[in-house]
Amino acid sequence: MKRLDWYIVRKFLGTFFFSIVLVLSIAIVFDLTEKMDDFFEEQIPLKEIILDYYLPFIPYYMNMFSSLFIFISVIFFTSKLAGNSEIIAMHAAGMSYHRMMRPYMFSATLLFFLSIYLGGWVIPKSSEKILTFTDKYIEHFSTDNARHMQLEVEPGTVLYIESFHRRSNIGYRCSIERFEGKSLMSRITADRIYYDSLYNWHLDTYTQRTFTGMRESLERGERKDITLPITPDEIFISAQQAQQMTTPELRHYMERQRERGSGNVKAFEVEYHKRWASPVGAFIMTLLGVTMSSRKVRGGMGKNLGIGIVLTAGYILFSTVSTTFSVNNVMSSFSAAWLPNFVFLAISIPLYIRASK
């Protein structure tokens, strides 16, 4: 990395963070204008608004629109370099087009790791604050009741609860079936089930049938203590809470839910793959931005900037639409997260080859 490389890196990162400050400031003003009535109506303390909503707001939306910020930043300062004939001077000094990409890719690598760290560890905690604040004051989406839950809590053990109340940790009309292969070994039904602690559950007014070959034994009682590897919090996890989990927690949760046969894993899989696909978009947007703006053209950077905004908006829209298709089981979670990257990479490579010539 030479002095010229660091010059490009400073231009890249400086423009990137300046655009973040500018765009997020405008976004916060618009959001504040929209929610001002809700804030006054609920009489929310100013400290909570700042610390629990708008402070976590910054890393969340910074990472969400990082592709937009990167693309616009690259086009903005590269068009300026080309307009001032600085790129021509680089080539005249013997720097090839491929060599010129080194500081760009170095900057994209820094933003790649920053995005992984934000998306995997910082933003989940920020999202938890935002969603808690939103649920408490603006839009109530959490629930304390669940009905008709059936899941495999461990291999061969299926739990069904007709209704469960979160605040009391009590469920009504449940059954627990244990299988070996396809053979039913035992079935317990109970009028009530409630959670104690550390995977300890209690059954009230239960009936247990145990099957041994062609024989069946019957047991009835008023109370029975059992161990089930599940907690009430896991029962009430919703798709919105995928954003509140760190990457290791998200991976661990998906593995456990697949073992249990749960059907609400799709949104969590999409979130997991997006946390890797979105940072990779930094390289693709950088490559596409440089190839579009490295030539000196009439009219300055206005045309390049306009095309850049349209393409980035298309990238974000494409990502949103593919995510919807995945949640509706039209395509796999991996395809939904990575397809926009593959499409825009296919667009970028021919443009890069053409620009380098």
How would you portray this structure in words?
The chain has two domains: 3-139 and 265-356, no CATH class; 145-231, no CATH class. It is 62% helix and 20% strand. The protein has ten helices and six strands; from the N terminus they run H-H-H-H-H-E-E-E-E-E-E-H-H-H-H-H. Helix 1 (3-42) crosses helix 3 and helix 3 (66-83) packs antiparallel against helix 9.
Helical content band: 55-70%
Distance between the termini: 24 Å
Strands of the biggest beta sheet: in what spatial order?
1-2-3-4-5-6
Helix/strand class: alpha+beta
In N-to-C order, the SSE pattern is: HHHHHEEEEEEHHHHH
* CA-based shape: elongated
The low-confidence parts are none
pLDDT averaged residue by residue:
88
Q: What integer value in Å does the Rg equal?
A: 27 Å
Quote the beta fraction. Answer: 15-25%
Oligomer classification: single chain
Number of domains: 2
Tell me how many strands there are.
6
* Main β-sheet description: 6 strands, antiparallel
Helical stretch count? 10
Helices and strands in order, then pairings?
Blueprint: H1 3-42, H2 46-64, H3 66-83, H4 86-92, H5 97-138, E1 145-154, E2 157-165, E3 170-180, E4 183-197, E5 200-212, E6 215-227, H6 232-235, H7 247-260, H8 266-293, H9 302-327, H10 333-356
Helix pairs in contact: 1-2, 1-3, 1-5, 2-5, 3-8, 3-9, 5-8, 7-8, 8-9, 8-10, 9-10
